[in-house]
Amino acid sequence: MTERSIKYAQSFKEQFTLRGMIIGVIGAVVITTSSMYVALKMGALPWPTIFVAVASMGVLKLFGNTNINEINVTHTSMSAGAMVAGGVAFTIPGIYMLDPDAAVGSLQLYAVTFGGVVMGLIFTALIRKYFVETQALPYPMGIAASETLIAGDEGGKKAVLLGVTMAVVAVFVFVRDKLLLIPGALFNQTLLAKGIPFGVWVAPMAVAIGYIIGPLFTGVWLLGALIGFFGIDMAGVAMGFFADLAAADAFRQSLGIGVMVGTGIGILIKGILPKAREIYGPMFSKELTKGAFISLRWTPIAFVLLAFVFTFITNMGIVASIITILGVWITTSMSAQIVGQTGINPMEIFGIIVLLVAKFATSIGQLEAFFVAGIVAVACGLCGDVMNDFKAGHILRSNPKAQWFAECIGGLVGALVSVLVLAVMFKAYGAMGPGTELPAPQAAAVAAMVGGIPDMTGFVIGLIVGALLYIVNVPVMTLGIGIYLPMFITLTVAVGGALRLIVNLVAPDFAKKDTGTVIAAGLLGGEGITGVLIAIWAVASGIAAG
User: Fold this and answer.
1) What's the DSSP call for residue 92?
2) What angle, rounded to 10 degrees, do the helices at 106-128 and 299-312 form?
3) In 85-100, which positions are buried (b, 16+ CB within 10 angstroms) versus exposed (e)?
């Protein structure tokens, strides 16, 4: 599609439309549901750029008389829910890892998610102009989204491909998980008898994640798995460094958690502290008000109300509530900065940093510590990652206020759906954490910070290694995930990364058209949505039988 053939909106009303927001809400429900499942299963949540861009473009073109800005605003609404889901999935399940019988009220969880969303929306409005326009950070995923829309979808081929892929994968997952006619994983039986799960996970979404994040990040992920599986579990026990496999596993998991937390320290040391004046200085000047969509006089009132909600509904106490709000102010800027530079958003690490401050300064309880991390992660997920959509909007000349209103709608829908899906998944599977169907490694890292590290030596080593490697530009977050997750999951992810490498080398035109990425988005969406539907069916059947 050439520049001349692109149809741009001529007014705000042509961008922020009723039909666009209805489509956006439906899409937000779908993508939030899928994202919760993927995050709990995989411990990774690739930004659903292509999915939402193609879906919005395909549906709106069916209605006709659309424009590139209406599509952009609509997919902003869709994508907002995904990162709310990430913030919830990467923190709150840790509650049930430490105490499966924890009494957590729905009102408390909604106070956490909606509170995080409201603050994420406020800080998006305040810092968008600085990071997207003034500092002009690259936001690679936002650029990818804009290029997808500019390239267009003549004849709706991409939308059809996305839909067909989702349908095929949905059938596959139904046959695998409901009819049990396809194994969930293929293991080496000799090693499995010794308690070593070496094999391949039969999961399309794992292949999709590997393809989307690419060979570099997948290769580092695989390196982490090799270190964990062969270096620690196998060689460590064989050479007598650990008394048994259980001790080796405790060290391995602690090392992986340490590497992930060390990444957050590396971000502070390299990306934030040297640029603190540049990042936060504009917030105390007139620069803050330029391009903002909300009046500054209302923000203190909003923060007072949020402090009241956090203090009395979540029982965090006034001091911890204030620390949380101040922490969100700092970490949302950190999130916007790191996403803009690398495309990665370690939202749970920002949650850990603030919860550690809250634990140091107050006598906050175990449950409330998770609430602090959850609020921060949701706000950072929403504010940081949705900057990609605003970057796309800046390139496409969309009205940022229309995008922000769309983000408000999608974020609030995401908050509502995330809590519901989390409850369904916990009810269906009965447990979360290492060794379960829902390992949720990021939430396990938060749980370790709250409840105690299994092996402090491994954690400290990982902490130092993670910080140092990040400083020298190694994509160390995926290294920590590889060390932490079981080898059979990583091998399937590696298949996706290898496929991406082959496509890039052998069929560069195919890669340039994003066809493979569209298929990968369909794999993620198809398995995620079907997995949740099966879980809902299991819960409903259990209730009916009871």
Assistant:
1) T
2) 160
3) bbbbbbbbbbbbbbee
Q: Is the residue at 10 inside a domain?
A: no
Cβ-based burial of 44 (10 A; exposed 0-12, middle 13-18, buried ≥19): buried
Please check whether residue 30 is in contact with residue 528, taking contact to mean a CB–CB distance below 8 angstroms: no
* Helix spans in 291-386 (H): 299-312, 318-342, 347-361, 366-385
Residue 96: inside a domain: yes
All residues at 6 or more sequence positions from 204 whose CB lies less than 8 Å from its CB, including other chains = 169, 172, 173, 523, 526, 527
Q: Which pair of tokens denotes residue 45?
A: 């949540």
Quick one: tokens of 403? 């995008």
**Four-residue CA torsion sign, 267, 273, 277, 283:** positive
Packed helices 18-42 and 68-89: angle between N→C axes, nearest 10 degrees: 30
Asked whether 494 and 221 are in contact (CB, 8 A), the reply is yes
Domain containing residue 96: 18-545
Question: CA 311, CA 371: separation in Å to the nearest integer?
Answer: 11
CB 124 within 8 A of CB 382: yes
Residue 12 within a domain: no
User: Over its length of 546 residues, how does the chain's per-residue pLDDT go in tens digits?
Assistant: 444 467 889 899 999 999 999 999 999 998 899 888 888 887 666 666 778 888 888 899 888 889 999 999 999 999 888 889 989 999 999 999 998 888 888 999 999 999 999 999 999 988 888 889 888 888 877 887 888 888 777 667 888 888 899 899 999 999 999 998 999 888 888 877 776 778 888 989 889 888 988 899 899 999 999 999 999 988 999 999 999 988 998 999 899 989 988 887 887 788 777 877 776 666 565 555 555 666 666 778 888 999 999 999 999 999 999 999 999 988 898 888 878 876 778 888 889 889 989 999 999 999 999 999 999 999 999 998 889 899 999 999 999 999 999 999 999 999 999 999 999 998 888 888 877 888 888 888 899 889 888 899 999 999 999 999 989 988 888 898 899 888 888 999 999 999 999 999 998 877 777 788 888 888 888 888 898 888 888 877 765 555
Does residue 223 form part of some domain? yes
Sort residue 11 into left (φ over 0), alpha (ψ -120 to 50) or beta.
Answer: beta
Q: Report the distance separating Cα 27 and Cα 433, nearest Å.
A: 29
Q: Letter for the amino acid at 191?
A: L
Structurally, the chain folds into a number of domains equal to 1
Contact between 72 and 396 under an 8 Å Cβ cutoff? The reply is yes
